[in-house]
Amino acid sequence: MKAAICWEPNKPLEIADLDQQGPRTGEARVRVKATGICHSDWHVINGDWSLPLPMVLGHEAAGVVEEVGPDVSNVTPGDHVVFSFRPHCGRCLYCSIGRSVLCDGYKSARWGMLDGTQRLRYRGKEIFQLARLGTFAERVVCPAEMLVPIRKEMPWPQAALVGCAVPTGVGAVTRAANVEAGASVLVIGCGGVGLNVIQGARLAGARLIIACDLLDNKLGYAKEFGATHTVSAQSDNVVTRARELTEGRGVDYAFDAIGGEATTLQIVEAIRPGGTAVIVGMAAMSVRAPITPYAMALGEKTLKGTMYGSVRPNLDFPRLVDLYLDGRLKLDQLISRTWTLDQINEGFEALRSGQVARGVIVFN
Ligand SMILES: [Zn+2]
Ligand SMILES: [Zn+2]
After folding, report:
1. d(CA 338, CA 77)
2. Annotation marks residue 39 as catalytic
3. pLDDT digit string (tens) for 173-220?
4. Which of 80, 107, 230, 352 could disulfide-link 219, Cβ–Cβ 3.0 to 4.6 Å?
5. DSSP states of 183-229 as a string?
6. How confident is the model over 235-250, as pLDDT tens digits?
7. Is residue 287 within 8 Å of residue 305, measured between CB atoms?
């Protein structure tokens, strides 16, 4: 079973042949058909997030269920599935109130199975799986509750994106912020997630969608995904532009799809009094941003975070697939390039340099 192993930070991933144990109780084995290259994987490779290594990375993927262990009832062999990178115990406080993204029903580490054991070995050494998945691999054994069945006519690279970038971006608008028709929206960062915030705002009926990025090619993508105005962070002040476009007031909602000090402060400044600023992008763990409590209180501003777009995977993933198949959700345009697993380091180089909206690894 071929997979890409991250041995230590700031080194290329190594493609190696691993031993994989079959699924145990509550687990399934999935043949991966496509997996996206996401900034969250990059955070591990470049050492922003220090996780135990060696690890197979990858968490945005789709594939076919090949085999299930005992006591699995939500998927059967042959099902087409999208991986959800959060477990869903169904019993904890968060699962009970419909916020399964925050599920805390398991005490085991997030890089192994729910019972705390590992399914991957390389020359006898245990290899961890990012988010209990590790989809930069031909096959994945994972908790079956993290698999969401989808319609079989969904193409694979597009299905993979329904596992991270699309729900994270669209859900930030429709689930976390509840943007209403006619609203004004600012989106900072127009990569895989930011473009989906933009199309989420379009789907929600936002009237004004201002997109901001450093790179002109990303602003071009933003227009295609529904931005009504673009701001180049190279040459323009995004807060000033957001105010100019809203009669000096500021936008109703602003989203930071990057996750940095400057961008966090910009979204808080760019919203009108009573507005909502949402942190969507996952920052490096060390990032701090000094907000001004006085201005927050005076302007009755809301600053909130959203993880995974605050989605409910079992409900929202099939719905996103329906929207794509109905022609209302743009996914083809997100996939700038595809690679094979052997070319994965080239894929990360393209991500790092901002050449792509999304790069996807495709398997035969
Ligand atoms: Zn991701
Ligand atoms: Zn739970």
Report:
1. 27
2. no
3. 999 999 999 999 999 999 999 999 999 999 999 999 999 999 999 999
4. 230
5. -EEEEE--SHHHHHHHHHHHHHT-SEEEEEES-HHHHHHHHHTT-SE
6. 999 999 999 999 999 9
7. no
Whether 229 sits among the annotated catalytic residues: the reply is no
| Ligand 2 centroid from CA 129, angstroms | 20
CA 35–ligand 1 middle distance (angstroms):
10
Instruction: Answer whether residue 357 shows pLDDT above 90.
Output: no
Clarify whether 43 is annotated catalytic.
yes
* 3-state class percentages of the chain: helix first, strand second, coil last, to nearest 5: 30, 25, 40
CA angle 51, 135, 317 (to 5 degrees): 110
Beta strand 147-149 pairing with 139-143: unpaired
Catalytic, 92? Answer: no
DSSP state of 173: I
Catalytic residue among 95, 103, 164, 212: 164
Determine the distance from the C-alpha atom of residue 116 to the mean position of all C-alpha atoms in its chain, rounded to a whole number. Answer: 24
User: Beta-carbon neighbour count of residue 171 at 10 Å?
Assistant: 26
C-alpha–C-alpha distance, residues 82 and 162, integer Å: 7
User: Cα–Cα distance between 288 and 306 in angstroms, integer?
Assistant: 17
Question: Relative to the alpha carbon of 312, which ligand is closest?
Answer: 2
Cα(208) to ligand 1 centroid in Å equals 27
What's the rounded Cα separation, in Å, for the pair 154 and 297? 47
Distance CA 119, CA 140 (A): 9
Single-letter amino acid, residue 311: V
Give the ligand whose atoms come closest to the C-alpha of residue 143.
Answer: 2
Catalytic site residue from 6, 39, 40, 88: 40
Indicate if 80 belongs to the active site.
no
CA of 145 to the centre of ligand 2 (A): 11
Q: Is the dihedral of CA 224, 262, 280, 172 positive or negative?
A: negative
Distance CA 309, CA 173 (A): 8
